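The data are set out underneath:

___
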Amino acid sequence: MDRCRGPAPERGERPLPGDPIRGELPRALEAAERALGPCVEVAIDGHELAASSEQELQDGNVPAKAPAPQCPAPEERAAERSQRASRRRPGTAVGMKAGAPLERRNAARCRSAGNPVDRAAVEPVGAEGDLEARDLGIDAGGRGRRGEGETDENEQADDASHDPDPFRRGRPTPPVTVSRMLWAISGGAGFLGLHLSRRLLGAGHDVRSLDVAPLDEPELERSVHELRGDIRDEARVRELVAGADVVVHAAAALPIQASRESIRSVNVTGTENVLRAARDAGVRRVVFISSTAVYGVPEKHPIEEDDPLVGVGWYGESKIDAEALCRVAAVETTIVRPKTFIGPERLGVFEILFDWIREGRRIYVLGRGNNRYQLLAVEDLVDAIVRAAESPAAGRETFNVGATEFGSVRDDLGALIAHAGSSSRLQPVPVKPAEVALRALELLHVSPLAEWHYKTAHKDSFVDVSKAQRMLGWQPRLSNEAALTETYDWYLANRGRVGGAGVTHRVPWNQQALGLLKRIS
């Protein structure tokens, strides 16, 4: 057995909410656990409810569910959130020593849902300073505090499971069952942000976005409250979430960024900023867009949500650490782990593939191409995000999302080439020599492909989405083949207006050394 990966958790067994590593609390919470003993305190929205023991909560001795309030106007909601935020007590959570930093496991050590934490391998989170437990409003159990009159989320899930789904595809959002809300989107000018904004605006919601890049979309610019700024800028993040009902945290540094520090400063420190600002603003729920890169290169398929987290490269490592912050934040946070998602306006690494197919070049495949690699249509991801934000049962849950219809790499690429009417043909290449060559090119900064791309491209990679189907009523519409062909058709129709190379999914990536290979293909 690989000692780094550890045994896979038993089916249905869940990690403790306070830490992604099963059976261990972060060091910052150990003192609180010892001090509190059996006492439990849970927090949501800044209100406190203390139980004399865990048994009291288990026996159901909690306040009865409050009647549903009348939906206030947006101005009243903003004022109410401001009042709630002002009533919050400053300082540490109950039983927490002031200044105790949240800690994370060193990336060099193995991450597993079953492995004990190696305390010697722990280092503080944060580029500019340590994130303290009190900053996220963490209590001894790593959960948020519950407001007066609110029931446990599991009780809400039972009631909600019989409700009709207001977000079923093919019909508008019913205004009677879902009130107009303000959604805040970090990374709103990105590929996912554009599609999510269109969906929300079409459903009658208000949208505010934050990104370092402009929306560059006239229709959205007229309707979206656009903020320009960096997710690492705390003041700008607070402006983004002020008065928001839901925050979708989609901003991220991609694997092709130049350094570990640049990736971590966005993906970990940026997430810290969002969680703290959302807590202070009284946001109802944060939806964090993670990645299936957190699973690394697993040997077991399909991958389930409670399988070990062993990320590949700096990007996978940073997403694991960002998820750890989400699990212990006071603000209710739902984690969505999408497979690689594509659709209209998606360029990046797929622009390289489409460019080569359009020109009839050989398409190199690591290995024989018989591995099954699951993708996801962006419209199906958007549907999952909306459901994750709206479903009472989804609070503090993690969901895999991916296509349910997909074949082997050879089959899906062959179908795309046939659809394009291209003379391209698939060319298998030996895995080991290709990995060595691509690794060397990556270290020389002359390849657009990162470790995550070439270490997983020849492996099976697909996740179990039954949890999202069961709890969210979510069902993906497009197969791998349909998503690829729709994205390719958009590329052909719009390639004349595609901008210069960059490092986001909305622009082409510089092919660099691969451009030389293209000339002889």
About this structure: The chain has 17 helices and 15 strands. Residues 344-377+406-521 form a domain with the UDP-galactose 4-epimerase; domain 1 fold (CATH 3.90.25.10). Residues 260-281 form the longest helix (22 residues). The two ends are 42 Å apart (CA to CA).
